[in-house]
Amino acid sequence: MSNMKRWLRAQGISYSSIAAAMDQTKSSICQKVNLKAQWQKTDFLYLHDHYGLSADFVLDLIPYDCNEKAEGRPEKMSLV
């Protein structure tokens, strides 16, 4: 399971809600989270700016457990 998939589940964030916030389709996010499509530079910037996630984490270049800062981050972006 990808880091992003585990992180989204741990944060209680659905593909639909993050897709809407990132102005993308649910299908696009699903493919990226499941490593079937590539993340784009704008995706990395958004995820870093809103959640503190590094590109290395998003790309699974570091283990999930190494992302304690983002994983333990209590605040969530409002997706309304």
Descriptive overview:
Mean pLDDT is 87; it is low at 74-80. The protein is built from six helices and no strands. Helix 2 crosses helix 3 (26-33). The radius of gyration is 11 Å and the shape is globular. It has helices at residues 3-11, 15-21, 26-33, 41-51, 55-58, 68-71. The protein is mainly α and 80 residues long.
What gap, in angstroms, lies between the N and C termini?
Answer: 28 Å
User: Could you say which overall geometry the principal axes of the C-alpha atoms support?
Assistant: globular
- Unreliable stretches covering 5 or more consecutive residues: 74-80
In quaternary terms, these chains amount to single chain
- Helix percentage range: 40-55%
Question: In percent, how much strand structure appears in the residues?
Answer: under 5%
Order of helices and strands: HHHHHH
Number of helices: 6
Structural class: mainly alpha
Work out the number of β strands: 0
Average of per-residue pLDDT values = 87
What brief labels describe this structure?
single chain, 80 residues, mainly alpha, 6 helices, globular, disordered C terminus
